[in-house]
Amino acid sequence: MFRKRPRAPGLTDVAAQCCLAAFACLATAIPSSAQVPPVATGGTDRTVKVFGASGMETQSFIAHEGPVTALLFTPDGRRIISAGEDKTVKIWNVDDGSLENSIDAHEGAVTALSLSPDGKVLASGGADGRIKWWAPATGKLLRTIMAHARPVRSLAWSPDGKLLASGGEDRVIQVWRADGSQAASVVGHDEAVTGVAWTADGKALISGAADGYVKVWTVGDFGLASRHKTPDKSLSTLVSSVDGQMLATAGADGRIRIWTITGSSISELVSRILDRRVHCMAWSRDGKVLVTGGADRSLRFWNSQDLSVVMRVSANEGTVTAVAVTPE
Predict the structure, then answer these.
(1) Check: CATH 2.130.10.10 for 2-65+151-325?
(2) Over pLDDT 90: what percentage of the chain?
C-alpha cells in the first residue's frame, strides 16, 4: 500500500522524471525569497502523499477507507497525523510511511485536527459535534466534549496552548480551557464557521464563515473587535501564518485572499481568482509561500506578497482536501 520514490537532485531532473512517469508536473522558476517547502497532501482518492522541496513526490500511501479530511505534522516533523471520513485518526512515520497508530475517533467523519504547540495534546473534531483530546504518543483518549449541535468545522489551539477554539456548522464559536471547561461561546456568524485562527500574541481570535465575513474577537470577553465583509459569497477555509502576521482565506468561488494582521484588525493585501474551488491551505514556516489544494487535483505554491505562482504540481488523483507543511 506504501511506496517510496527516490529524491531527485534538482528541479530540471524532477520535471524530466515527472514527464517520464506520466504524471503532470508544472514548475516555474523559484525566487530565492520564496522557497517551496516540503508538504503532505490528502485527497478524495484516500491517499496521503509527500512532496519534497523540489516538488518531487517522495511518498504515497493509502491512508483511509474514504476521503482524507485533515492533515498535520508533529512538531519534530517525524510523523504525519491524518483524519478521514472513515471516522479514524491515524499516525504515520514520515521516513518509511509505516502506520504507527490507528484510532477509532468519532461516530462520524473526523472533520478537523489541531495539535497543541508542545505537541502533547491532539484535538479532533467530528461530524458528531464532539471534540476529543488525545495523547498522540499513545493514542489514549484524554477528554470528550459535546461541543457543537452540528459538525465541527475548524479547530485551533492558542499560541500558549491554554485555549482551544472551535467553529461549527451550528454557527457557533466555542473556546475551551486546557481542563476542558468552557471559556466562551459566541454565535458569531449567520452560516457555518469554516475557520478559526489566533493572532501571534494570543490576544485575538479570528473567524471566517460561509456567510462571507471575517471577524476578529478580543480574548477575555470575546467581544467583536472588527468585522470584514469579503466579496466572496462563502468562505471555505481560513488559515493564519505561523508567525500570526498574515491570514489567508479562500472563497467557494475559487478566490484566495491574503490579509495582513495588525492588532485586532486585518486589511486585504492581495487576491486572486482560480477556476476551481480551493479546499485547503497551509503556510510555509517563514510566511513567504502559501500552499493551496483543491478540486483541480493540483497543489499550488504562491508567493504571499503578490500571489504569483511559484510552482504547480499535480498531486492527488482526486480533489485535494488537506495539506500540511513540514515544520522543518
Answers:
(1) yes
(2) 67
